[in-house]
Amino acid sequence: MATSGARAAVGFAVKSGWTALVILQGSSDDPRVAVSTRVELSDPENPDARQPYHAGFGTARANDARLAELVASVRGFGARSVAHELRRHQDAGHRLVGAGLVVGSTVDPATIANDHIRIHALEGKLFREVVAGAAADCGVPCTTWRQRDLTAVAIDRLSVRESALKTSLTRLKAGVTGPWRAEQKLAATAAWILLAGEPS
User: Fold this and answer.
1) Which residues, in sequence order, are CB contacts of 73 under 8 Å at separation 6+?
2) Are 138 and 83 in contact (CB under 8 A)?
3) Percent of the chain surpassing pLDDT 70
4) Which of 68, 78, 79, 186 has its CA 20 to 30 A from that of 12?
5) What is the C-alpha separation between 113 and 84, in angstroms, rounded?
6) How far apart (Å, rounded) are the C-alpha atoms in residues 28 and 10?
7) Is residue 1 part of a domain?
8) Domain count, the chain
C-alpha cells in the first residue's frame, strides 16, 4: 500500500505486446515493492497487434492499410493501458519521480538490413515509444536503458556489488503477490536506479 505523497519510481521491462510494471517506494537504501503488475500494450482481442510488423514467422507485413491499422491500435490501446495504471497509482498516493524503461535495443530500425531483425526492431521501437509517451503524458519523466547495460548502471549508481544487487532483487519478492521473474527484476532495477537520484 502506498504512503500518501511518498517518493516512488516506476520501472518497465518492455516486451512485444506487454510490459512488466514495478513501482518501488522508499529510498535507494531501503526500496520496497509497492506495485508489480503486467500491462497489456496490445489489444488481446486483436492478436496480430502483438507483433504488428510480422506477417508470419520472419516475414515482414506489407506497408499497407492493415499495418497502419495495427500500429494505430497499439498506439491507442497501449497508451490508454499505461496511462490508466500510472494515474491509478498516482491517485493512490505514489509520487512518481521517474520512469525507467528497459528495452532490448535502441538501434534505429532504418539502419538494419536484415528484414527479420528489422521488423523486431520496429516493434521494439513502437512499444517503447508507446510506454514513454504515456508516461510523459502523466508527467513522469523517462529514462531508457538497454537490458544488457542495466546491471552495470545499477552497480555504479547504487554503489553495490553484482552479487549484492542480485540478492536484494530476490529479497524484494517478499513484498510481491504474483510472478517475480526476470522481467519484474529488470523493471525493479530500473525503478531502483531512479530512486537513487536523477539519471546522469
Assistant:
1) 42, 43, 46, 49, 52
2) yes
3) 95
4) 68
5) 37
6) 13
7) no
8) 1
CA 82 to each of CA 38, 86, 131: distance values in angstroms, whole numbers, following the listed order: 10, 6, 6
Confidence (pLDDT) at 115: 87
SS3 category, 46 = coil
Classify 58 as helix, strand or coil.
Answer: coil
Model confidence at 93, in pLDDT bands (50, 70, 90)? confident
Single-letter code of the amino acid located at 79: A
Rounded to whole angstroms, the Cα distance separating 200 from 183 reads 24
Residue whose C-alpha cell reads 502483438 in the numeric block = 50
Strand, coil or helix: 31: strand
* 8 DSSP 8-state letter: E
What is the C-alpha separation between 104 and 23, in angstroms, rounded?
Answer: 20
The predicted structure's pLDDT at residue 3 = 54
| Residue 96 lies inside a defined structural domain of this protein | yes
Domain CATH for 39: 3.30.420.10
Q: What's the predicted TM-score (pTM) here?
A: 0.92
The residue segments making up the domain with residue 182 are 6-195
Is residue 15 in some structural domain? yes
Question: For residue 200, is it within any domain?
Answer: no
The CB density around residue 116, as the number of other CB atoms within 10 Å, is 13
Q: What share of residues in the chain are helix, strand, coil (percent, to 5)?
A: 50, 25, 30
Give, to the nearest 10 degrees, the angle between helix 115-137 and helix 65-91.
40
